[in-house]
């Protein structure tokens, strides 16, 4: 499966996105990663694996009835309804992705 599009089509899409208020940094990221889709995809997959391994190790080391109940409740909770402490835990992982694609935590390239 190929995600690459022609330069002309990409320029057209980026222009439309920009004109409709899509953040400039996001457009630049789309352009910058256009010719490196495979490497970018693999890097994101690597980060996902690291996150999964970290979580699995933590879970296996801390499997108590109380934690299992808490985790089951978290599974059923939408992100927007998590506590700030729980959101911060997720934000740490999203910060790694942002860093990988060249965006600071403030949303700047």
How would you concisely characterize the structure shown here?
By secondary structure, this protein is mainly α. It is built from five helices and no strands.
Describe the structure.
The chain has 5 helices and no strands. The chain has helices at 7-19, 24-34, 37-61, 65-75, 84-100. Helix content is 71%, strand content 0%. The relative contact order is 0.10. The model has no long low-confidence stretch (mean pLDDT 77). Helix 1 runs antiparallel to helix 2 (24-34) and helix 3 (37-61) runs antiparallel to helix 5 (84-100). With 109 residues, the protein is mostly helical. The chain has 2 domains: 1-35, no CATH class; 37-109, no CATH class.
Task: Walk me through the topology.
Layout: H1 7-19, H2 24-34, H3 37-61, H4 65-75, H5 84-100
């Amino acid at each position: 499966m190929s995600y690459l599009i022609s330069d002309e089509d990409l320029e057209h899409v980026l222009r439309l996105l920009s004109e409709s208020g899509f953040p400039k940094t996001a457009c630049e990221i789309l352009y910058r990663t256009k010719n490196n889709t495979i490497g970018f995809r693999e890097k994101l997959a690597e980060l996902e694996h690291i996150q999964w391994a970290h979580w699995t190790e933590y879970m296996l080391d801390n499997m108590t009835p109380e934690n299992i109940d808490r985790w089951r409740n978290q599974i059923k909770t939408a992100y927007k309804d998590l506590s700030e402490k729980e959101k911060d835990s997720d934000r740490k992982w999203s910060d790694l992705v942002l860093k990988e694609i060249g965006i600071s935590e403030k949303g700047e390239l």
